[in-house]
Design goal:
Protein name: Thioesterase/thiol ester dehydrase-isomerase
Largest sheet: 7 strands, antiparallel
Number of helices: 10
Organism: Myriangium duriaei CBS 260.36
Order of helices and strands: HHHHHHHEHHEEHEEEE
Strand content: 15-25%
Shape: elongated
Number of strands: 7
Keywords: Membrane, Transmembrane, Transmembrane helix
Helix content: 25-40%
Distance between the termini: 154 Å
Pfam family, one: 4HBT
Length: 326
Amino acid sequence: MNNPFALTAQRCRPLQVHSLRPIGRLSPLSTSCFGTLARPRHPDFPPFHIFLASQRRLVSSNSKSFPISTPSSPSPHTKPPHKDPPARISALRLILLSTLFLAAGFVMAAAPTIPTATGLITPPSDAETLNLFTPPTESASHIDSYILSHPLSKKYRADAGFTESRPHMRIPQSMRAHNLTGGTLLGEDKMEVPPLCFSSVKADLPSFISIVHVGPALCGHPGIVHGGLLATLLDEGLARACFPALPNKVGVTASLKIDYRKPCPANSYIVLRAETTMVEGRKAWVKGWIEILGEGTEEGSKVAEAEALFIEPKGAANMPKIHSSS
């Protein structure tokens, strides 16, 4: 009869396990039938504690061969490491650049207005205005020569009590397109030449004379100069007569009464005459008329007469003086 313990012992023989040998050949592992693990017996594979000790010695020897450098005091010949600029320096640079670009933009934007501002601050004198107009066409040149050489112009030019000027040329070039008598009404077939004016000098009740040519483009009815144009010339001419008598040499129209006497033909040379009749503080009363220019110095036929009251506004001292050289 078979012994059961012998059969059990036979079944529990030690198992031999071989590794895949990635590093070296390993000794078989002995196990008992109850799963106990025996130590490896292969002579080429040392115990774990011996292997760990050898690795520690290896690390220790490497650290001695390659010592770790530690920071030391810099040599006087050693260049210090580069440091980034402080944030406040970068902010200062940004502010300076922004200010520079802002100033450049302001100058570029303001450059077109500099001639206009200069013309308002320092307007040309009466004598300088006579040289600021150049006739653009042959027709304008003929009209200009006729007015300048007319006996009436020569008479007042020789009178020391009057000063000769072209006041519309005192308006800056950039502003003339927005001025009625100094820009809109000037041009071919209109008033081709700015009015030639004579103003009395140092008079308590000053007077004013203006000579101008009116073309066919200024008509209301065919061949007849528009009455509104005559009213505009009277309003402006009477105002120029009294401006020298006002405290700040400027005023606005308070009232204007016009009586039309006869039609004014187109392509005519006309003369506006105005006389200041009374001045009270900031108020001035003026009368005047428009006549057809004759051959000599005598008065021509009147086409319209007017009376007006002008008042200097408050704050006139701060208004630009583009209508007067004083």
